[in-house]
Amino acid sequence: MDNIQSLRFFWPESVLTVATIAMLIQDLFVRRSARRVPSLVAGAFFWLALAAVATALTPSGVTPLFGGLLQHDPMRIFFAWLFLGAAALTVIIVPKSEQISPARLGEFIALLFALLLGMFLMASASELLMIYLSVETVSLVSYVLTSFRRADRKANEAALKYVIYGGVASGVMLYGMSILYGLFATTRLMGPGGIGAQLSDVTSRLFMAQAFGGQPAAQLALVVAVIFVLAGVGYKIASVPFHMWCPDVYQGAPTPFTAFLSVGPKAAGFAVAIRFFFAAFEKQLPGGGYQAATDLPWPAIIGIISAITMTLGNLTAIVQNNLKRLLAYSSIAHAGYLLMGLAAASAAGVQSILVYLIIYVLMNVGAFLVIIVVSRVTGGEEIEDLRGLGTKAPIAALALTVFLFSLTGIPPFAGFIGKWLIFAAVVRQGGFWYVLLAVIGALNSAGGDGRAPARRAGRVHRRPGGAGRPGVRPWRLLVAPGALGIRRFWRRKCVLILAVWKSLPADYTPGETPGQSSVLNRTRLAFLRSRIA
Question: By residue range, what is the domain housing residue 340?
Fold first, then answer.
């Protein structure tokens, strides 16, 4: 499809381009207004609503845009709605965070729209250079938003690390793309003459090289190129070994942007991964399934990275003391779970990834919203600041418990459904290695990913300590949601406090015997120790 005809499919991106400029102009007009923040937020929602209308009115179907640079299909529309939802949630929590100065709110929203535009392009890019340009657009704006608080040393340090890691990953990815161009003489993934078509054609350049004795070299070059391209994608989704920027950036960046960064660019990275691997190395069958177009063992490569990513993320999350760093390692672990769906190399695997991303956006942004509440109530973002949150902000405490249980994957919460679909897609493929990958994922869910959020959630309902403070009000038992699921999965190993033991003295800590406890309190304490021993 030529450029003029492609424009009617390009309305959402066009609206976001205009919105970026419009927010900067609006910021100039309301600079001295007393209602600056409400007017900027209203303007942001107006442009998001307009982009949503443009997305809804986009014609359906599957067609290449701008000569094959972009691909319009249902997956593009799905990610467009996902990105718009994440951006709307971010705009809601920005004024409540107090971490973005009202004097710079318009600039923040304009940069957020520019980032959103880059993510839209990532979700539809079907050409190697277009993938690179869209990834760089998202990366460059992310660097600026990470260091948005210029007076904060942590933010500046995080942005510097982000730039260094991002520059290395982008260079490696571009080098891998150059190898692919040398092998196939094209940068197109789809369409006649594209990489996918050549891999399915025995008369292509790669097959001719193999026929004349160049098979080992050609196959090795293809494997190296795929791994190098995976470096750029892995950097966006924070998978091992490209994850090292993630904890520092999550901790140093403003919390509203951290919430968006944990879901938006990660989802865009998976859109690129799905588009790249399934368009180039898989051949779609008439029934909707997929068949390998080459002997390249890319599912095995993804599976190994998935197992390492989820294991490292879960184990490292257990020892964290900062809430944002905890969620950063949790985000790394969830990238490993999502990679399981990609390693399944099937339509069910792709569908499980899409469902999981919807759930992940809601539960992760919700968790960061509670962190903003904790920061406003206690003035900190450490794990210890959660003590007594059930008394200070009971709704926030209950919400955090629900979000953490969902992140853990405890039934009947939505996170369990997402993980169930991913595990089912992997096991359905059959074979020893797929079953082993599913077992590793299950062990990580029950061991690491469960213990870290559970241990932190227990402190939400524990009263803050204080020397010599008397006992508090009569006990009120509040069974945490999902207690039945925890008892089934972890029983004695889970260190979550399952109830609010408000009858215990305020200075009580685990391992001590209350000074003047009733027989009923001693009975409860013995039961509690039997559960966490």
Answer: 297-474
